[in-house]
Design brief:
Blueprint (H helix, E strand, L loop, with lengths): L1 E2 L6 H11 L5 E7 L12 E6 L6 H11 L6 E4 L5 E5 H4 L10 H11 L1 H24 L4
Helix pairs in contact: 1-5, 2-5, 4-5
């Protein structure tokens, strides 16, 4: 099951889903490319899980994301069953946003820092294109 908001760019989200599928069958995903249902900007995110993972999946994901050098910094985490890629500013928002509940954090950052948010939205597909190139190049590893 893939969850996309109505305003999400379906084509961009599907492209990201195809890239994530290079490492295995995606069982569930939530991909938000940066706009809510009211066209308000918020930092993008990808949350997903695989049906099953190879032993090297975690290393491949962490290594690829950490080697990306784009417009902003990105973080990858797997706090439970699901993988998550978000801008580092969302993963570690600092004291400015410490009182904001996690469910409202991306909207708050989107309102408070629209320039950062737009940079993240523009960099999101670049990150996944980079990941795809690495994963395709290293398929035999």
């Amino acid at each position: 099951m893939v969850r996309l908001s109505e305003a999400t760019n379906i084509e961009a989200a599907n492209a990201i889903l195809r890239i994530l599928s290079q490492l295995g069958a995606v069982e569930w995903a939530r991909i938000d490319v940066g706009y809510d249902d009211y066209k308000r900007r918020r930092p993008p995110l990808a949350v997903w899980r695989y049906e099953s993972e190879r032993d090297d999946t975690a290393n491949r994901i962490h290594s690829a994301v950490s080697s990306y050098s784009g417009a902003i910094d990105w973080s990858v985490d797997k706090p439970g069953r699901n993988w998550m890629i978000v801008p580092t500013k969302v993963a570690d928002p600092g004291s400015e946003f410490s009182e904001i509940p996690e469910g409202k954090l991306r909207a708050a950052i989107g309102s408070a820092d629209p320039d950062f948010t737009e940079a993240a939205i523009q960099d999101f597909p670049n990150l996944f294109n980079f990941l795809s190139g690495l994963w395709i190049a290293n398929q035999g590893d």
